[in-house]
Amino acid sequence: MTFLAIKNIGKHYGPVHALDNIDLTVAAGSRTAVVGPSGSGKTTLLRIIAGFETPDVGQVALEGQVLADGPAVVPAHRRGIGIVSQDGALFPHLSVAENIGFGMERGQADRAEQINALIDMVELDRGMLDRRPHQLSGGQQQRVALARALGRKPRLMLLDEPFSALDTGLRENMRKAVARVLQNAGITTILVTHDQAEALSFADQVAVLREGKLVQAGTPQTLYLNPRDRETATFLGDAILLPAELGDGFADCVLGRIPTDANGRRGRAEIMLRPEQLRFSMIDGTASDTQCAGNVIDVEFGGAVCTVTLALANATGAAPLTIKSSSVGLPEIGSTVHVSVLGKAHVFDVVG
């Protein structure tokens, strides 16, 4: 069921085309992440949905209610949309309880009970209700900001890079906690982020913007494994891009013969593999046509996930390959290993 429908949205700032013909639908109860490099238009899109910006053309509809039709818009305060920004935007002179209850009627009988329920929902101790924002950690402040937004009973929640100011470990914990809270509350959510890993792990749907255009939208798995073009592939993670010759469901390249998702296409093309699809094994004299030899030129220890860099033995001039590996059984620099590929290679448009 379509909950939010964005149709043909366009926005200019003088000569700058911030958004160009954006079409996107969001299902009820889902989580959508909007990603893209700086200047791609993702924050402008979020602000148009929230009602802080007016589109030049196009329509935004929420549960069938038209919120924007070109410059004719419903004001932001009448949209029933909650928003949590990067810094939380808490009022420094108010207590946690006063911040959470800011949007509630002061005279309502169950106001204190609602505030207690909200702080419980975001998994904070009620003992923090009398504190001021400066007495909280960054993660606690973001939870209070989320509780305040939830207190207005929004139909839609917008998250504008809410975890970017947090340390790496805390960011991951907060992302999981916020996802859990919103899922339990059944609130449809849109997250804007520059962190690709964050988008892939948080969302049911990922939308990639580039230069004001919607390049691709789909499930995280689809975009990561089947990106539309090389720019999207490299934006969403490390990618190995290789020239290849297609035929009979396989691609012949410097790594040997690899199965592909080419669907009967033939000819020269560029294929993509993710580094975790490559595996190495010590030379034992039993290499097949799906394996090739590589010389280990670098090993980067990273704890649970390490990076092994190889120079292919029979591919003069080819760029080194990186393989993601566990820290168990790492090869030594200077050793020779067999390289094999797991799964299928993804094929971009045929060249020539």
UniProtKB/TrEMBL annotation:
Listed Pfam families: ABC_tran, TOBE_2
SMART domains named in the record: AAA (SM00382)
GO annotation, biological process: quaternary ammonium group transport
One cellular component (GO) term of this entry: ATP-binding cassette (ABC) transporter complex
Residue stretches spanning the membrane: none
Top-level taxon: Bacteria
Keywords: ATP-binding, Cell membrane, Ion transport, Iron, Iron transport, Membrane, Nucleotide-binding, Transport
Family annotation (Gene3D superfamilies): 2.40.50.450, P-loop containing nucleotide triphosphate hydrolases
Signal peptide segment: none
Protein family per UniProt: Belongs to the ABC transporter superfamily.
UniProt protein name: Iron(III) transport system ATP-binding protein
Source organism (scientific name): Rhizobium leucaenae
Lineage: Bacteria, Pseudomonadati, Pseudomonadota, Alphaproteobacteria, Hyphomicrobiales
